[in-house]
Amino acid sequence: MPSREELLKKLGLKDPDEEWVEKVIENATKPSFEEILHLKKEIEQEITKKLKNIKGIKNVELSLELSWNKGLYHIEGEIKISRKKLLGIISENIDISTVKYEIDKVLKKRIVKYTSGIFVSMD
After folding, report:
1. CA 114 to CA 74: how far, in whole Å?
2. What are the φ/ψ torsions at residue 69 (nearest 5 degrees)?
C-alpha cells in the first residue's frame, strides 16, 4: 500500500496549507446571495419599525446595501427621516443619537461581525 505522500504525488496533489484551510472555512461560512438579501430585508423592516416608534418621526426611507467579504458583513447606505410637522412647523425635536442607537441595536441583534457606513438625514 502506497504512503500518503506517494499517493498525493501520484495524484498530483499537495498537502493543504493554511491558505487552503482558510478558503475552505470562508466558503463553508459564507452566506448565499439569497441569505444576504433576506437578512437585508429583515434589517430594513426592523429599522423602519423601530424608528417609526420614535416620537416625532413621520416616515422613514431606507436605501441600504449589505455585502459579505472575508468573514465580515458590510452595511452601507442612507436613511432619510421625515419629521412630523404641525402647520409646517416641526412638532418634536428628535435626537440623532437616539436614532443611531436604535439602528445599532438592530444591527447588533442580527449581525455579529460587521462594519457600518450608514448616513442618517432628517428633514
Report:
1. 6
2. -155, 120
Question: For the chain, percent helix, then strand, then coil, each to nearest 5?
Answer: 45, 30, 25
| Numbers of helices and strands, H then E, in the chain | 4, 5
Distances (CA, A) of 39 to 62, 70, 97, 107, 111: 14, 17, 24, 10, 9
Instruction: Give the pTM.
Output: 0.74
Helices 33-52, 96-110: crossing angle, 10 deg rounding: 150
How would residue 2 be classed by pLDDT, with cut points 50, 70 and 90? confident
Instruction: Single out the residue of 86, 93, 88, 94 nearest to residue 51, CA to CA.
Output: 94
First to last CA, the chain: 76
Q: What is the distance between the alpha carbons of residues 38 and 35, in angstroms, rounded to a whole number?
A: 5
Distance CA 48, CA 62 (A): 8
